[in-house]
Each structure stands twice: as structure tokens, then as C-alpha cells.
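Q: Fold this one first, please.
A: Sequence and structure below.
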Amino acid sequence: MAPFSDDTVVGELTAAWHDAGEWRLANGPDTPQRKVVFRIDAVNRLSDRLYLRLRDFRLLAGGEAIDSAATAECTLAPGTTEGVVAGTLWVPAGLAQRIGGFQIDRFAVPLSERGRAFYREFLLLQRPGAAAAIDAELAAYAAAPPCQSVLWPLGL
């Protein structure tokens, strides 16, 4: 969703994960863990670039959230980019087969001239008199590096 509109869908995130086949004992013999490999794919539905920030990826299993520090901050080209974020997590062995979803903190801003103008006006309503800071913020978003596909050795 665009931050300035609850009706503007700018893209989609999907995640995939699988057991990597490795295990370890975390804090003693009664705490086995399984290594899980994950990947987040992003789709930009717009015809222009999109600033994308992803933080705090979590796999959800059995009512628990298993956190990762994996992040991305980049400009997403139109279309699909596989593996915008990828990594591994050590998951309690009893939860590894019960992973049923994911969460990630996300923020996206359309970088088209119109998208930036809408977002600028939205921010000015929240922070009147901060035009210079808002313009600098938008310039930083536009200058973010392109999103790269992160490849993993254990593909899905």
C-alpha cells in the first residue's frame, strides 16, 4: 500500500521457506533447532520505480514468531524481483514443520513524479513547514540503490 492512500496497492510481497536439512543444539541437549532458509519476492505493480524498505522478517509457527535481522532498502523496478531479502533462521525443531506464514515490516513509496507529489503533500499535512526536510527525504528514497536478487544455494 502507498503510505498516502489505503486504496493504492503498489505491489505484493511473498515469502518462501524450507528446511535446509541441518540441525544444532542451541542451549543444551533439550533444545534442538532446525535451519530454515527463506526468501522474499517483491512485485512492483507500477510502471515506475518504487522505493521499498523491508525490516524485521518473522516466520510464524505454532503461535510464535521467529525473528530475523534480514532487511532491504532499495528501489524496486517494475515487475517481479525474486529474493529481495533472503537468509536463514534457526527454528526450534518442534516448530520447523509448523511454519504457516510470515510477517515483515514494510514501507513503499511510488517514485513517479505523481507518486512523489502525492506523498510530499501527505507529509506536508503531517509536518507543516518541513518542506526542505521532506524534499531531502524523497531525494534519498529516489537515490536508493536498485533492489538486487539475493540468490541462495538451496533454491526452492
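Q: Good. Now the second chain.
A: Here it is, same layout.
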Amino acid sequence: MTTNLATEKSKKHKQLSDVIGYVLNNLQGIGEKDENQELLNIVSRARQEMLDAQNYFDNVTAPELVDHAIYKMEAAKSQYVYLLKLVKDKGLSASM
């Protein structure tokens, strides 16, 4: 159980690091093609996180963890929707 939570924290930390890196690279003016690809990579990871959260919710058995699973699922969905909006605003296609 502790390992699972540590893995989740690690994933969240990596994803946050990716978003911060994306923003910093954007401010530094990296090539648009690289920037767009990085954004699509971040969206792909966010999608996977959303699917993992859904799977966690579907398989949680302890009543005490149901709320946690719901919050995790909703947070992942919100982040994914936000990132998809960024992709749409840039006129990119995120075919996954």
C-alpha cells in the first residue's frame, strides 16, 4: 500500500515537473515543433493517469478509500481536460 502511494506521488511529481518544464521552455522560446510535441507527450501521460485513476476507482474495495478514488479520478480528469483545451487552443491534434 505504501509503495502504491509512493508511486502515485512520484507520478504526480514527474507530471508536475513536466508541466513546469513545458512552461519554462515556452518562456525560453524553444522551437515550436519541440514545444508542441512536448505538450502532446504531457497530454498522453495525463490521459494515462486519468485511465489509471478510473481503474483504481473501479477496483477499490475498502469503503474508506472510495472518496480517495473519486477525488483522484476527478483531479486527473480536470487536468486532462485542461491540457486538451491547451492543445485545442494551439490548433494541434491529439490523436490517441
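Q: Anything worth noting on the second one?
A: The mean pLDDT is 83.
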